Amino acid sequence: METPSEWRAGWRTVLGGSVAMGTSYGLLIMTSGLFIEPMQRELGWSRTTLTLLPIISVISAFMLPVFGCVIDRIGARSVGIGGLIGLASGYCALILLPLNLAILYAIVTFIGLVAAASGPMPWTRGVAGWFKAHRGMALGLSLCGTSIISALMMPILAAILVGHNWRWGYAALMGAVVMAGLPAALLLFRERPANMEQPVDGARKVGFLEILKVPQFWLLSGCFAFVSVPIGGFVVHMVPILTSKGLSTTDAAAAASGFSLAIAFGRIVGGFLLDRIWPPLVAATCFLLPIVGTVVIGAMIDSTHNGLMIALTAAILLGFAQGAEVDFIAFFAARYFPYAAYARTYGLLSMTTYIVSAGGALGFSMIYDRNGDYGLAIEISAICYLLGGLLILGLDHIPVSPPSRARQSVRSRGAKFAGQRISN
Predict the structure, then answer these.
(1) Helix (H, G, I), strand (E, B) or coil at 206
(2) What is the mean pLDDT of residues 274-282?
(3) What radius of gyration, in Å, describes the C-alpha atoms of the chain?
């Protein structure tokens, strides 16, 4: 399929996937930090207790390979729509049910179970099937829906949380799913028919063990694990970091909106460059750039001048890596592994990032509860960005071991594990 016909055939799936993804689990990730202080004031629980995203992320992480198997067999659209319905149901429970710790964690557990089905995995699989020459750009555009919608929702949620109960904030998130996400998935999102036949024949023959035997899988997992520590921490704690140093909730939400827009920018620019420049170099650059952001936000923390512009600058630099990371997972899963096993590969790689991101968010909370500030967490973040950025440069330089029978079965389905582009 040539480039013009790719876009003519696939633009609806890119748009539908972008809107559906933008109202799904990613929106909850991006806005979860806004709920910590309002819930803490009303319920009287610690920030560690109310940092709910790690629980959701860990549960969702273990569900990713499960839903990956289902998607590779029956397709992405029905799984994604079911995930959106389940997520809206979880929001409804948070709105209506009286809360104690047991009920709260039961609802959070349910959201974690359905989050994997509504997240990027089904939507990026559908998009990847329509594109080859401009796959990076198509994935970047579809993934930026989360950041654009988050940027729009941040000030709305901030105003709701200042003037009303935090439950109204979850009502707004539920409304976004019902009024935008589900219609987009139902009306626009379609998988490429030629690729819908591949999961039935090929997915059963390319199993988890074959994927785990590929050296690039482990290097990618290590790289994404390092950068997920600060990404998980900053996503949840960006607003609390800023408000703890004198910014109002409104100004902190404005900086968080800049964080979300930087994620969109990172995904679009990263996707554009992935199609034109050596992909590991693009990934390394995107992961090293946020080190500057940690320096800026660290200086702001130690400064008496906590201006909005300083906070916005730091948020933009940090958001760039957050946006690029999900794009890279989708791109490299499609680059090094066959399409018939895309969802399984994506699920395994994302399982690592979800778990480590959860640990990063929880670690930020524990550091704050112990020290009363986030200084140590920011220093650790800079080190993790450095290690992740350097590690991914070795992606195409891993010695290829003699092909095993399992490795040959993967290669026979069109994957070229030495860094060459797959022809789907």
Answers:
(1) coil
(2) 88
(3) 20
Given a contact cutoff of 8 angstroms between Cβ atoms, the answer to whether 38 and 195 are in contact is no
* Predicted model pTM: 0.71
Q: How far is CA 59 from the centre of its chain?
A: 15
CA–CA dist 332, 349 (Å, integer): 10
User: What is the number of helices (H) and of strands (E) in the chain?
Assistant: 21, 0
323 is written with which tokens?
A: 């946006």
Query: What angle do helix axes 342-371 and 120-130 make, rounded to 10 degrees?
Result: 140
* DSSP string for 111-151: HHHHHHHHSHHHHHHHHHHH-STTHHHHHHHHHHHHHHHHH
Q: 296 and 310 in contact (C-beta within 8 Å)?
A: yes
Between CA 60 and CA 197 the distance in angstroms is: 27
CA dihedral (316, 318, 323, 326) in degrees, to 10, reads: 180
- pLDDT at site 423: 38
3-state secondary structure of 196: helix
Distance CA 49, CA 27 (A): 21
Give pLDDT tens digits for 254-276: 787 777 778 777 778 888 888 88
How far from 349 is each of 286, 353, 388, 389, 416, CA to CA, in Å? Answer: 18, 7, 14, 17, 18
